[in-house]
Every structure is written in structure tokens, then in C-alpha cells.
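Bumping with the actual sequence this time:
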Amino acid sequence: MTYEQIRARLRACGIPDAAEEARLLFCHYAGCRREELFASPHTDCDAEALIDAVKRRCAHEPLQYILTEWHFCDLPFSVSPDCLIPRYDTEILVQTAMSRLPSDAYFADLCTGSGCIAVTLLHRFPGARALATDISDATCAIAQKNAQRNGVSDRIRFLRADFFDGVLPVPDASLDAILANPPYIPSDVIPTLAPEVQKEPHRALDGGTDGLDFYRAFLPLYAKYLKPDGFAALEIGYDQGDALRQISRGAGFSCEIVRDLDGHDRVALLRP
């Protein structure tokens, strides 16, 4: 198949960014660089793996799962259907934490998924350490692989844990920060999401009836682990800022809402 044939197939299947995805697929399976493809756009690649990948994408399997990796904050991350796909929205959370963490921070990353939050921050802060948790052994294994891949595995501990148990193997008042990209989509919205999103782990998406189950439980369970000058940074849905302010006030915490470039609520920054 040529790049142009792949692009046409993807467009016919309703893939929105067919040109870019065709480029990524072709370069991945043909083993060529972007510049080489642009210089010879009619090059044919008959690899069975490429043909199969195009079929999978036309069936709306996420591109990231097909490629088995994705970049986040300029770092490579392995991904699989066992973890949520790293997204730009979560880079806002990382940027928020980066500007506030001390260089020798000790922090927790709850619902770690691919490990993209913790691994990126450890990569940026060579003196930092982290504890990362997830409910799935398979997901923790992916995150561990990404820590090794990006050279930070000696400074992070992975723990399979249910968030709602509220137990971390650290002393009270010992963490500079707790970070999380939790499930925050209301349950009845899940069936309306794009077919690609519905192929991601529902446990990483479904935030309960109103999408706020995680946030209601968070401060009562985890506030005790923060240092007096520590903070929590939690990714939130585009319209959940007011709800987070109310939840935080009820627990005696301040809440600052950080918005993304489109002006949508994206991160709740909580302080004692």
C-alpha cells in the first residue's frame, strides 16, 4: 500500500485526521522518516503488518494501540488496551505540577495508567522520587516498562492498589504532592463517546453517576499524606471546576482551577 492509498482508506472510514494518521502508519511499518515519505510519496509498502494495521484503524481501534506507543511531553511511552492513552490534556497537569514541585520532591501518582505523569516529572526532576498506584497489575507492568524505558525506574515504586481503599505505604504528612488523572466521565456519557475512546479501559474513564466519585473520596482518604505546604493536582472534566471548588471547601481545602488553551477547566489545584 502507498501512503495515498492508506489516506484514502482512512478517509472513507471516517477517520478525522486521515492524512496525519496515514503518515504515522506508513512510516512506522515501512521504517522510514517523515522526510523520506514526503520525498517519495508514491512508495509502496506491502508489509502484511501495515495492511492489517489499516484494517484495525478502519475498525476504529485507537491508533496508539496499533502503534503500541505514543509520545507525551516529548517522551516515548508504550501503550496497550490495559492503559489509558496519554493525552495533551494531561500535559496541563504535568506543567502545573512542574511549576510547583521542589527539585527533590517526593510525590504520589494515583491511577497512574501508562505512568506518563510520574515518569515525565521524574525525568524533569533528577532528584525527585515517586510512588505510583493503579488497580491493575497489567497496567502497573506497562508503567514500570515506561519508567525503565525513560531511565527513571530506580526512583519510582509501583503498587497495585484500589484507590478507594485509601492506603499508601508512606507516613502521614510525607508527600510534597499527590497527582492523578482519575476517571471523571459520568457513567451515562460513556456510551456516547467516540468508538476509539470506548475501546480504552472503562475503569479509567467512568467516574460514576455524575463523574465526581473520585473527587468526593480523595480528600477524606488522602489529605493526611500531604505535607502542610503540599498540594494535590487532579485532572478534571471541562465543566467540573465549580463542583471541585465546592468539594474542596467542604474539606477545608482551597481550590484553584487551571484552564487549558481552549479555556476549559482542566486541573484542580488543591491546598490545605
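The C-alpha cells above came from a reply further down the thread. Strands lie at 69-72, 75-78, 106-110, 129-134, 156-160, 175-180, 226-235, 254-259, 265-271.
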